[in-house]
Amino acid sequence: MKTTTPATIAPSTTLPLPLSPIVWDKCSPSEPKGIKCGVIKVPYSYEDPAVGTFTLSLKVHSAEDAKKRIGSLVVNRGGPGAESASMAPDAGFYFSQTILDHFDIVAFDPRGTGASTPFVDCVDEYDSYFASDVTPNTPEEKLALVDDARRFNAECLKNSGDILPYVSTIASARDIDMIRRALDEKTISFFGFSYGSELGAHWVNLFPDTVRAAVFDGAADPNASFLQGGLDQAAGFEGQLNAFFADCATRETCPIFNKGKPEKIFDNLLVRLERDPLFVSSKRTLVNEGIAYTAAVDAMYSDSLWPTFAEALADATDPKVPDATGLLALYDDYYQRRSDGTYDNLLEAFTAISCIDDQGATTVEELDTYLPQFTAAAPRLGTYFSAGYNCALWPVPSVPRVEIANAGNVPIVVVGTTGDAATPLASSRKMASALNDGRLIVVTGNQHTGYGTGKCVNGLVDKYLVTLTAPKNESTCS
Description:
Layout: E1 23-25, E2 35-43, E3 53-61, E4 71-76, H1 91-94, H2 97-102, E5 103-108, H3 127-130, H4 139-160, H5 169-183, E6 188-193, H6 195-206, E7 211-217, H7 226-249, H8 262-275, H9 289-299, H10 306-316, H11 325-334, H12 346-357, H13 364-368, H14 371-377, H15 382-386, E8 412-417, H16 425-434, E9 438-443, H17 455-467, E10 475-477
Parallel strand pairs: 4-5, 4-6, 6-7, 7-8, 8-9, 9-10
Antiparallel strand pairs: 1-2, 2-3, 3-5
Helix pairs in contact: 5-6, 8-9, 9-11, 10-11
């Protein structure tokens, strides 16, 4: 683990770069009416703008009630690495009518992602890199796992090496201010889901005087190290997996009820898949325990996927004709594999951004020393979460970490959900504490992020964004 002391970056006081305008153009015919489409250029490096330029894809859903319009709400749906420009045409899926009436929803694909150019582009298929045996029992199996990471990293360097040093979250936070200036607004509002909360926290930290309001939903601990963040997630997903088993154990109709011991079905399947992976298609990889772990992690993002996961486990353990199609489908859902076998660049961008933000261990040997901590935090899933060697072998140095402390000049709303595996409630609570005036809303539920789950949380968040009336810290919603 790196021992670099996190840097504390004061609010930006440097002279801003010359204004980069948004260049508006016609949207594609598939976009709904009322959407504006454009691009904005931002420098690879704000310290050395001559190095190169990203062209960020940007879309705007204009406020539906012009008389009620307050201003711009910049949004991000997470990742890191997820495209977010689609949040403008899909604004009705993400936000209430109150928000749609009062704000222009300004959505953009962060540098290196989505339709922004250039973007991180490493490989065309994932199976040969990420369908690995994550519980190696021999030196040969371990070498294969490490080699998969080396090969993937080499392809990233070959195909996107020019931009890998410039896709940090800090740089994207500065891009938000470039967008604000191009919109000609003194202050703007922000709504970030999941990783979007980390992006928003850095923006608030750098440009507090430009923040009208901000909401961080499904917020991670902004100051967690690479190791601690991984341990937090491992424990979070393990907790939700146990909740899934506990729920199934109460219902004989659950496909893996197994006399109230559904966890035995899962445990025995993992042992079998390590020894004897299941065939699904000649065009796809065999379904091994690594794919089953990924399927489990995907299903723990929301209890709406629990029935699908239970059916997949039941099918894979059918004593007559075991069928792993369901497990493979969840694995594909996690990596966002399209029906035609193609992928967007989320995984590549996720890896590049994660590794440059905080590389963590810098050798395989160092990373291996953390395995006992992962298995202690998550007895079933810990090995899976500790097995990623990409960042330890990443070819580009990470940027100095930045501490978020007393960030922002205005109250900021943080939403945490009790059963959130990816960003556990404890992490969201730490985000609220890292802000100058963080107001946490605790939502009861088994899913990642809480806005949109009911009138209570929507009412508190909407009232805050529209009237700037912040809820009391530790407000609760069922």
